[in-house]
DNA sequence: TGAATAGTGTCTATGAGACACTATTTG
DNA sequence: CAAATAGTGTCTCATAGACACTATTCA
């Protein structure tokens, strides 16, 4: 049976991490090759589906993560798909975008000629000019992330496996761009049975040591029954 | 520039409607042609993307809706994408699935040899055997629909443009499979400014006439701040 | 006037938010 | 003991849910 030319299909990754108390996104530089679209521009990391190598979309995501030197065990979820005749100058193309959350600490060389780099600014204007419609995809990913932070445990996947509640709360606050009440935050966490303390393990500082916790279930996020919204009027 | 064989890409529709107080889903019969996979089986309506006809995924959705004789002005939103080497015997294939909500009344001939038909049973076992992984797609669509009914105005898109609050509440109750308190339901609707009354327009019956309402904004669903959940413990 | 459904008012329980308070460490 | 952060207790307010009540039509 013949397989005639359908659209191009690729997978693109929107990888977020909190670094130095700011939300960061991982971008990749496109090759300096005049034969590909947008040579030398920054773009989302991703790859065309290779029907020989990739058994599924998820396998393709893991391969793309390895390609950029990222652990392929990071949390990811499908974001959405984009497809039309205009977005790629080579013709009709479809992209399945994935939201990836990375524990801060996945380091990349931060040099001028690096092909993969963290970018801190999350407003469209502050980012470098991006290839294709990748700005739209990032906007969607930011909306998805900020919405789900309100009612899920997603931020826990942006921390190492062990953390204090203050550290977790800080990630929530960075993503939500507002302060959360400490007491309400803890009440909610415990009600959802999100975390469990690690016996006798404390973070030592120049003050009262903090209990260290881990997620009860690292395989999937938890949904809280309500939101953190103040003044829901 | 050459376009070598990527995966097949198609769009599939999960069309829901409430008919006779039950959730229904629209299925299409595959052609009786031994050269295509699953000849004669029921499946989700959909179509391969035609890069000549379709300017975008959304345009392809509207064409698919017209193909099955459905108004292409129905509410739809992208559900998710499925893609792997196994799901289509012809090889690697990708499908972008859409959730479509239809005002009940879009009639189809309900005859034995119809190619498109409403099916009322929503449990997997009660449906006819379906082609491809379409059972998985339907399960995802049901989960998405039931989740969003808890906190959005999606059910309003399954009614004609004018309706009474009792009618709207009934759609919620059918989708949620539980009763909702009338007073709480109305308080929530009005707080969200979801609907507006049509002056002096009433539904007449053998009792006190009911005010008829319309959506304030038919272009997109509204998100409620909380859910209808009773006994959130 | 009774049946039937539309529509409203009141009470309670719950949980988020605000905020003050106590606890435990180091220097 | 002071500084600093960890962790808890208490009060208030908003709102969902329960449920009873009133309103308006037709037969």
Distinctive features:
homodimer; 233 residues; alpha+beta; 7-stranded mixed sheet; 3-stranded antiparallel sheet; 4 helices; DNA-binding
Count the strands of chain A?
A: 10
H/E element sequence of chain A? EEEEHEEEHEHHEE
If helices are DSSP runs of H or I spanning 4 or more residues, what is the number of helices of chain A?
4
Which percent range fits the helix content of chain A?
10-25%
Largest sheet of chain A: 7 strands, mixed
Oligomer: homodimer
Mean pLDDT of chain A: 89
State the shape of chain A: elongated
Q: For the CA atoms, what is the radius of gyration of chain A? A: 20 Å
Biggest chain contact = A-B, 33 and 34 residues
Structural account:
The structure is a homodimer. With about 230 residues, chain A is of the alpha+beta class. In chain A, about 20% of the residues lie in helices and about 30% in strands. Chain A has four helices and ten strands; from the N terminus they run ββββαβββαβααββ. In chain A, strands 1, 2, 3, 4, 5, 6 and 7 form a seven-stranded mixed beta sheet that branches. A three-stranded antiparallel beta sheet of chain A has the order 8-10-9. In chain A, a hairpin with an 8-residue loop joins β5 and β6 (about 95-100). The longest helix of chain A is centred in the middle third of the chain and has 18 residues, at about 135-150. Chain A is elongated and about 60 Å long. The first copy, chain A, binds a DNA duplex (27 and 27 nucleotides) through α4.
């Amino acid at each position: 049976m013949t397989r005639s030319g359908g659209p191009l299909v690729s997978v693109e990754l929107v990888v977020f991490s909190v670094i130095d108390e700011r939300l960061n996104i991982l971008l990749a530089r496109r090759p300096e090759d005049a034969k590909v679209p947008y040579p030398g521009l920054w773009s989302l990391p991703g790859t065309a589906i290779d029907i020989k190598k990739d058994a599924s979309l998820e396998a393709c995501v893991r391969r793309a993560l390895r390609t950029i030197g990222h652990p392929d065990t990071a949390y990811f979820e499908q974001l959405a798909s984009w497809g039309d005749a205009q977005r790629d100058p080579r013709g009709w193309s479809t992209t399945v975008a994935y939201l990836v959350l990375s524990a801060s600490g996945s380091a990349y060389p931060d040099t001028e000629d690096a092909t993969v780099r963290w970018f801190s600014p999350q407003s469209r204007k502050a980012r470098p000019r991006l290839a294709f419609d990748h700005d739209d995809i990032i906007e969607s990913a930011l909306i998805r992330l900020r919405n789900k932070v309100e009612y899920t445990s997603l931020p826990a996947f942006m921390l190492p496996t062990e953390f204090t509640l203050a550290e977790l709360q800080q990630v929530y606050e960075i993503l939500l761009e507002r302060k959360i009440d400490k007491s309400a935050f803890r009440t909610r966490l415990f009600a959802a049975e999100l975390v469990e303390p690690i016996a006798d393990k404390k973070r030592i500082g120049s003050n009262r040591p903090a209990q260290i916790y881990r997620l009860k279930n690292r395989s999937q996020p938890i949904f809280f029954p309500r939101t953190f919204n103040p003044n829901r009027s």
